[in-house]
Amino acid sequence: MKMPSFDYGIRITEINVLLQATILGFMLGELWYLSQAIGSAFNAYIQYTNKQSAAIAICATVGIFVCIYFILRDGILEIQKLLRSKGVDIFVLILLGLCISVIVGGVGTSKYQEYVGKVDIPQLMLIVAIPAAIALMLFLKVITNQARKSTSTSFFISDKAIECIDDDSLELSETASKFAELVLN
After folding, report:
1. Is residue 172 part of a domain?
2. Cys-Cys with 98: which of 25, 118, 146, 183 at CB 3.0–4.6 Å?
């Protein structure tokens, strides 16, 4: 059986992923400008009410939660996997989308500032609290899953994916790689 020759150019199926990466970068840029508008409104409120210590305490608490969440989700390991996957094109396109947003100065920057200026601070706090509540629920889910993993005593082989070739006790990594390449092509 003759093996098919491989073409390493861009495939039609990859264009969608590459376009999504560029749009993601652009949306991250726009999120940055929206965050700046919200932060400016909060800063004015904090300065007016003289609640700098409370704002610092809230920011420090959120920062600690983010770091703990990153560690519990094996964030460093995931970043290392992404870097080893050599998916540099995705990162470049995310940066390209981000640069496009920065170059144009944010497509909706004036609208963000206008809308945030119209919203009262309690309403703005509620709007910001919704994603924070979702993030807190995800954080609690990770903590409960970590607790379950540590108390689990299964006598069967784990269904967890292997993370390095040395863990491949059935020696199927080469076959799996060839199969994945065939499916991709």
Report:
1. no
2. 25
124 in a structural domain: yes
Give the total number of structural domains in the chain.
Answer: 1
Integer angstrom CA distances of residue 60 from 34, 64, 65, 180: 21, 6, 9, 44
**CA distance linking residue 63 with residue 56, whole number of Å:** 10
Q: Please check whether residue 5 lies inside any domain of the structure.
A: no
Looking at residue 9, the DSSP 8-state letter turns out to be S
pLDDT by residue for the chain (185 residues), tens only, comes to: 555 555 566 677 778 888 888 999 999 999 999 888 888 888 888 888 988 888 888 888 888 888 888 888 788 888 888 777 777 778 888 899 999 998 998 888 888 888 888 888 888 888 888 888 888 888 888 788 877 765 555 555 566 677 777 777 777 778 888 888 888 77
DSSP string computed for 49-114: HT-HHHHHHHHHHHHHHHHHHHHHTTHHHHHHHHHHTT-HHHHHHHHHHHHHHHHTT-TTHHHHHH
pTM: 0.61
Segments forming the whole domain that contains residue 48 = 13-146
Angle at which helix 12-49 crosses helix 109-118, to 10 degrees, equals: 40
Tokens 């269904």 belong to 159
Judge contact between 28 and 98, C-beta under 8 A: yes
* Cβ-contact 125, 55 below 8 angstroms: no
